[in-house]
Amino acid sequence: MIEYTEGIYNFYVYILTNKHKTVLYTGVTNDLKRRLIEHKEKLNSNSFTAKYNVEFLVYYEHFGWIQLAIAREKEIKDLKRDKKEALIKEFNPEMEFLNSRFV
Predict the structure, then answer these.
(1) Which one of 2, 12, 27, 84 has the fewest beta carbons within 10 angstroms of its own beta carbon?
(2) Closest CA to 67 of 3, 23, 18
(3) Which DSSP state fits 23?
(4) Torsion of CA 92, 99, 16, 12, to 10 degrees
(5) d(CA 60, CA 37)
(6) pLDDT of 84 strictly over 80
(7) What number of CA atoms fall less than 13 Å from residue 53's CA on the CB side?
(8) Is the pTM of this model over 0.90?
(9) Rounded Cα gap, residues 10 and 61, in angstroms
(10) Where exactly are the structural domains of the chain?
(11) Average pLDDT, the chain
(12) pLDDT tens digits, one per residue of 29-46
């Protein structure tokens, strides 16, 4: 049995967008700073985020356990766009780019 207490690890579920806020991408990582740099530098030129210039952080949640982070990522990915936008706007009403909090 797995018992979920206040985890000692750092995992993030995050949502990125492009400059014009027309595309949303949801991901999970254990190092949000590094991951934002990877998206910005387009390390994988064939990836969805590179193709659509998705590099701007508009939403994130912190977790202490990877199992919870992955479950939350799946929940968010299953949401329709309008629900994702509502989630983002509850956290970040102006949909400002939040990259500077981590980079």
Answers:
(1) 2
(2) 3
(3) -
(4) -90
(5) 15
(6) yes
(7) 5
(8) yes
(9) 10
(10) 12-101
(11) 93
(12) 999 999 999 999 998 899
CATH architecture of 12-101: 3-Layer(aba) Sandwich (3.40)
- How far CA 76 is from CA of 1, 43, 45, 68, 83, in Å, comes to 26, 24, 25, 12, 9
Instruction: Take residue 22 and report the two structure tokens written for it.
Output: 């027309």
Among positive and negative, which fits the CA dihedral 5, 62, 15, 85? positive
Contact between 38 and 54 (Cβ < 8 Å):
no
What band does 103 get if pLDDT is binned at 50, 70 and 90?
Answer: confident
The answer for residues whose C-beta is within 8 angstroms of residue 93's C-beta and 6 or more apart is none
Residue 99 token pair? 């990259």
Residue 5: the pLDDT is: 57
> Longest C-alpha distance within the chain, in Å?
45
Residue among 70, 79, 93 nearest 24 (CA): 79
Reported residue count of the chain is 103
Residue 9 pLDDT exceeds 70: yes
